[in-house]
Structure formats: structure tokens, C-alpha cells
Amino acid sequence: MTLEQGLNAWLTTQTGIDCYWLNRPSEADIAIVYRCISPGFVEGGLVQSGICEDMFSISVYHTDPEQGKTIADNLKKKLHYFDGDLGGYPVQFIEFSGGFDDPISDGVANAYQFNRDFIINH
Fold first, then answer.
1. CATH topology of domain 3-121
2. Going by C-beta distance under 8 Å and a sequence separation of 6 or more, which residues neighbour residue 112?
3. With contact defined as beta carbons under 8 Å apart, do 91 and 82 qualify?
4. Where are the alpha helices (DSSP H) in 36-102?
5. What is the pLDDT of residues 50-103, one digit of tens each?
6. What does the angle CA 26 – CA 5 – CA 62 come to, to the nearest 5 degrees?
7. Most buried residue, 70, 76, 82, 118, by CB count within 10 Å?
8. pLDDT at residue 108 in the model
9. Exposure on the CB side of residue 99, measured as CA atoms within 13 A
10. In angstroms, rounded to a whole number, what is the distance separating the alpha carbons of residues 9 and 87?
């Protein structure tokens, strides 16, 4: 199992919303999209630690700004300082690192994006 598969399973279970890697399908007005925006690793001096430290972005797309923001904020609360089983994938530590809220215009009336970024050590 990969981190992406575990994250997809966890997000789907927590929200009940369809989740996608990299891109949101044009017909999905309400969706969650996740992507790795900065892959990395934990320095271990002269010895490789074997621990990945990746920054992931999770975007909640919603037609209702209140519901979308609530979902994004709940994900932040659940994932900040998370460790353990993430949808079947073991992670060592997750930390919230930023985000933004934004109205979008992609042909959908009342479309909003709520982005939350996390550093995931695994």
C-alpha cells in the first residue's frame, strides 16, 4: 500500500466524499483532491534515516462555503499531530503547515476551494 492509497481511504472514510489524486473530475462539484507538493526525506547525518517527509495538499471543493470550510477545518483538527494507521498505511507523524480558502470560477455557480497543507513523516 502507498501513502496515497492510505490517504484516499482515510479521507473517504472520514468525510464520505469522493476523493481523487491530483485532479478533480469536471463533474465533481463536491470532492476532495490530494496531491504531494514537495516530496522529501528526514536527514540522518551520514546515515539515511529511511523516513520520508512529504508535504501534501488536501483541497476540499464544495458548493456551500460553510460546509466546505467546516469539512476542511475538521480534517485539520484530525490530522494535526496524527500518528498511526492512516487508512491502512502507517505514518509516524503529521503536522498542519498552512492553507487557504478561495472562491473559484470553473463554470460551477458557487464553487469554493478550501486547501489545507500537511507535512507527513512516513
1. STM4215-like (3.30.2000)
2. 61, 62, 63, 64, 65, 68, 69, 101, 102, 103, 104
3. yes
4. 65-79
5. 889 999 999 999 999 999 999 999 999 999 999 999 999 999 999 999 999 999
6. 35
7. 118
8. 58
9. 23
10. 5
Residue 39 C-alpha from the chain's centroid = 14
Q: Where are the domains of the chain?
A: 3-121
Asked whether the beta carbons of 120 and 53 are under 8 A apart, the reply is yes
Whether 89 contacts 34, CB under 8 Å: no
- Cell reading at 114: 478550501
Q: Which residues have C-beta within 8 Å of that of residue 45, sequence separation ≥ 6? A: none
Between CA 30 and CA 43 the distance in angstroms is 38
pTM of this structure: 0.90
Strands 89-104 and 111-121, sheet pairing: antiparallel
Half-sphere exposure (CA, 13 Å, Cβ side) for 78? 15
Residues 112 and 102: their CA atoms lie apart, in Å, by 6
